[in-house]
């Protein structure tokens, strides 16, 4: 296999996810899914593979929603994608046809228009689209279903709240929850690389009390299993003309160094020097890559997002991450009480604030709480970069 970090992989090149995907399809028989994890972990590639290889009797639509900025634009995209897919199966969009009349889906700037030239009401577009899809699936057979694979839903909601208002973003959430409950032939697979809990927290300040995800299964893909990460590294090593005295050993060293995340395996192997590599040179190359002032690994994102989502608690969040990074690097994980004692030496610490921040840092996939009630970094690569970047 050739390296292709960040590029579009063919379904057969998306490895190590078959068991997870099979379990997700089994879940989708009964309920929709919200898949949340760090960026670059492989959520989109999982969706690509599911879209390309659906089980019999499933119809799929895939779309990245992160670039949309209005509820009307989102509803129009849902209709457009449904129409395109059902054209190849069984085109039944009767109630939407009644709404749009002779224009039959005319758009201006990505928004559906009614015969009088006004914008089609986005709620009505979504309701009628879902109703028509349900009818189409029934006509196709007793077990046919449609799956919407919608990527970066939190960004969509954030954009809508900013460009329209928070109330519209609340309505989008409520409409999706209602439609998901009302149409048994339709499932949603929503993803996000920032937690939807941040968006919900902002909306709750504006009076939102909904629970849009309470009927969805939550899935966190995580890195590849170690055996699959090593196998991917070995395959990518085989596609390069880079001398290595111990290809298997180098594959193990590299896959473990980046925490068995496929994107980072691709990326680091693509940067290997043509003159040859050893286990030691792989470690040195990784450090140079992630600390370069001009690097394109985008790990600075994990530092910058604290200011945006943690607000006045940013300083304490930084102290927590610093302490855990130092402790873990020296082989010592910190419990809550050890963390409280350590931070209290620097100044007063509110225990409830500390508990809340540790929980939030786990929800945001910075940290993992172990069964021994100790904390460590979720990804070894993030901890490695954190220590180097912050001179710990």
List the strand order in the largest sheet: 2-5-6-1-7
Mean pLDDT over the residues: 90
The major sheet is characterized as:
5 strands, parallel
Count up the helices: 17
Can you count the beta strands?
10
Low-confidence stretches: none
Task: Estimate the helix proportion, in percent.
Answer: 40-55%
Structural class: alpha/beta
Quote the distance from N terminus to C terminus. Answer: 37 Å
Percentage of β-strand residues = 5-15%
Give me the Rg, rounded.
Answer: 24 Å
Molecular structure report:
There is one protein chain. Helix content is 53%, strand content 10%. The chain is built from 17 helices and ten strands. A hairpin with a 2-residue loop joins strand 3 (107-108) and strand 4 (111-112).
Walk me through the topology:
Blueprint: H1 18-28, E1 33-36, H2 43-52, E2 58-64, H3 71-88, H4 94-100, E3 107-108, E4 111-112, H5 122-140, E5 145-151, H6 153-163, H7 166-182, E6 186-192, H8 196-205, E7 217-219, H9 226-238, H10 247-257, H11 262-270, H12 279-291, H13 301-310, H14 314-329, E8 334-335, H15 336-344, H16 351-363, E9 367-369, E10 374-377, H17 380-389
Parallel strand pairs: 1-6, 1-7, 2-5, 5-6
Antiparallel strand pairs: 3-4, 8-10, 9-10
Helix pairs in contact: 3-5, 4-5, 6-7, 9-10, 9-11, 10-12, 14-17
């Amino acid at each position: 296999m050739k390296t292709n970090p960040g590029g579009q992989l063919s379904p057969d090149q998306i490895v190590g996810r078959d068991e997870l995907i099979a379990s997700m399809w089994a879940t989708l028989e009964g309920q929709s899914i919200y898949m949340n994890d760090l960026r670059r972990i492989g959520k989109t590639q999982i969706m690509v593979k599911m879209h390309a290889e659906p089980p019999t009797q499933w119809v799929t639509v895939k779309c990245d929603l992160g670039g949309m900025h209005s509820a009307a634009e989102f509803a129009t995209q849902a209709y457009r994608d449904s129409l395109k897919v059902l054209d190849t199966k069984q085109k039944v969009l009767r109630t939407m046809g009644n709404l749009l009349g002779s224009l039959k889906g005319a758009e201006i700037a990505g928004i559906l228009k009614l015969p009088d030239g006004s914008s089609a009401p986005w709620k009505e577009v979504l309701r009628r689209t879902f109703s028509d899809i349900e009818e189409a699936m029934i006509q196709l057979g007793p077990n046919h279903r449609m799956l919407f694979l919608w990527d970066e839903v939190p960004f969509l909601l954030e954009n809508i709240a900013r460009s329209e208002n928070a109330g519209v973003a609340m309505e989008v959430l409520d409409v999706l929850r209602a439609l998901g409950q009302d149409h048994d032939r339709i499932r949603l697979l929503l993803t996000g690389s920032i937690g939807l809990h941040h968006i919900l927290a902002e909306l709750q300040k504006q009076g939102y009390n909904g629970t849009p995800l309470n009927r969805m299964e939550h899935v966190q893909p995580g890195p590849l299993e170690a055996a699959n990460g090593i196998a991917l590294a070995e395959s990518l090593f085989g596609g390069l003309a880079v001398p290595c005295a111990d290809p298997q050993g180098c594959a193990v060293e590299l896959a473990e160094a980046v925490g068995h995340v496929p994107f980072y395996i691709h990326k680091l192997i693509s940067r290997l020097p043509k003159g040859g590599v050893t286990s030691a040179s792989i470690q040195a190359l990784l450090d140079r890559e992630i600390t370069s002032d001009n690097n394109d690994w985008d790990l600075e994102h994990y530092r910058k997002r604290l200011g945006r989502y943690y607000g006045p608690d940013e300083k304490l969040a930084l102290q927590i991450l610093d302490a855990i990074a130092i402790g873990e690097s020296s082989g010592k994980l910190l419990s809550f009480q050890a963390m409280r004692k350590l931070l209290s030496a620097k100044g007063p610490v509110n225990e409830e604030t500390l508990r809340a921040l540790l929980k939030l840092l786990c929800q945001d996939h910075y940290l993992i709480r172990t069964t021994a009630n100790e904390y460590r970094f979720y990804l070894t690569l993030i901890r490695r970069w954190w220590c180097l970047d912050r001179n710990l």
